[in-house]
Every structure is written in structure tokens, then in C-alpha cells.
Amino acid sequence: MSILIALIPAIAWGSVGIVTTKMGGSAAQGTLGMTIGALVFGLGTMLIYVLPVAGSDYAFNPKIWVVGVVSGLFWAVGTAGQFIGFKKLGVSIGNPISTAGQIIFNAIMAAAVLGDWTSSRMWLFGLIAIAMVALGAYFTSIPDANAPKQMNIDFSWSAGLLAMLISTLGYMMYFVFPNLLAKIGYISASLKAGPHGSADGLYYMTSIVGPQSIGQVVGALIIVIFFMKEREIFAKATWRNVVTGLVWAVGNVFMFISAANPKIGQATAATLSQMGIIVGVFGSIWILGERKSKRQMVFIIIGVILVALGGVVISNLANI
């Protein structure tokens, strides 16, 4: 059951690129609309679950709010970069690059800083798996001179890759930050356990979601207004992308629950959450109609298999 719960983010997050493309709008409008959707879900989680179960003293603990808001700011950077990358590269190319970057950075960060990998054997197979993921991402983005011409007038390798790098760093910090601050002692063991002494940190991780959503909106507004310089902030496309935010938020809650579960752990939860590459890549081709040659499809299939296998190896390192 724990593994099935940990796979929910993969389905939700793998659909984000498809949903936001269907909703339309600029990268800025998609970013802001998504954060509004996340805000609705985040505050709903706090009001419906956290306050009744954990109590107001815990839900409004200043340290939890600091962690949540800062994590949300990092997320806003990651989301803005990802949406720009999708616009520049297309979802079928941008999704596997983003996925591979997050798997690699999150796994290394969780293993090296949070201590999820505890033996030389785990490190050996973990690094092999990371190499598989990187190779798989490369295969999914191999160009073909005979492929159907790109219809995307904004297509740019350099701008797209830079956006994805910024996105990866933002997402990595958003994901690792809550457990990192618990690791260094800012969040005490008793605070992480919650009012009822939960061993899996469920209260801590769900309590973060509300303030995190506020940080997401604040971060998105800053990025959209001052960096993207979007003029039509609250256009129709912005409100349509609230749906994108709700889809993402479902994955977010289950991802943090899985990361707090000792049976799963940070590195495994991060990896399984990125298996949405299968949904994102093939969904963008079949649903969004992004055109690929037969040669590209062969490499895409091989690449997705490599990423998935690498993810499976990382998620089972404790059993190797």
C-alpha cells in the first residue's frame, strides 16, 4: 500500500505538462494559475485535516510556517522554470529532462545530506541507477533531421535547458528543505512527531502544505511581475490553470506523506514521484499531438524504460 500511495504523485505530476498545455496561456499565467490552485488545496488541507487532527497550536507553529513558506518559494522558482522549459522545448522533450534532473539531484541530495544511502553497496547501485536515468533522458531528447518539423515558434535548446536547470534546483530545494531542517535540528524530533507522536512525521508534512501554498503564491507573484514582466496576470488562462494546480496539489500531499514514511524514505519518494515521465512523455505525444519520427519514438521508448528502471533500482536500494 505504501508504494501505491507513493505512485500517486507520479500520475498527478506526469499530467501537469499536459493539463497546463490544454489550459493554454503564457508560462507566467500557467505558473500563477497553478499556484492559486495549489493555494486552494493547501488551505483546504489545513482546515479540513490539520486543524481538526493536530490542533491550532501545532498547525500555526512558527517554525513549521517558516519551513512551509520557504519551501513554497523554492517551488515557485521550480515551477516557473519548468513552464518556460515546456514552452521552449515542448512537453515531450522538456518532461524527461526535468524528470531526470529531479531524480538525479533529489536522490544525491537525499542520500548524501539526509543519509538515506547508508552503505557502499547502496551508493554503487545508486550511482549506476542515476547513470541509467541520465542516459534515458538523453535518449528521449535525441533529435532527428528527418523528423517532422517543430511547430513551436518559441523552440530554443539553450533557453529551454537553462530554464530546466533553474527548475531542477528550485524543485530540489522545495522537496528536500522540510526534511533538511529536521535533519539539522531546526525542527525537533518532538515537533516532527506531532501532538500524538506520529512515527512517520505525517502531522509535520501535512502541516507544511498550508503555509507552503502561501509561499508558492507569493513567490509566483514576484517571479511573474518582476522577472517575467507579465502584464495580463489574471487573464482567463490564469484561472483555467487553477485546474493544473489542483492536479499538482494532489501529488504534492501524497509525496510528502511518502517522504515522511520510514518504509519509503526521501530518496525513494522523490524517485517514484518522477515516474510520471511515462504519463508526461506519451501523453504529450498522443494527447497534445507533438510529432516524432519512428527513429525518435524508438529512442524515446528506450529512454523511458531506462529512466523507469533506474527509478526502480533507487527505490529498492535498501533491499539490495
Mean pLDDT: 85
- Report helical residue fraction: over 70%
Inertia-based shape: globular
- Please give the radius of gyration in angstroms: 19 Å
Number of strands: 0
Bin the strand percentage.
Answer: under 5%
Poorly predicted runs are none
**Cα distance, first to last residue?**
21 Å
List the domain count as a whole number: 1
SSE order = HHHHHHHHHHHHHH
Oligomeric organization of the protein chains: single chain
Tally the helices: 14
Structural class: mainly alpha
Q: What characterizes the major β-sheet?
A: none
InterPro entries: EmrE-like, Sugar_transport
Main location: membrane
Pfam families: Sugar_transport (PF06800)
Protein name: Putative glucose uptake permease
List the helices and strands and how they pair.
Blueprint: H1 2-23, H2 27-54, H3 56-59, H4 62-89, H5 91-112, H6 120-140, H7 157-183, H8 189-193, H9 202-227, H10 236-240, H11 242-260, H12 266-273, H13 277-286, H14 294-315
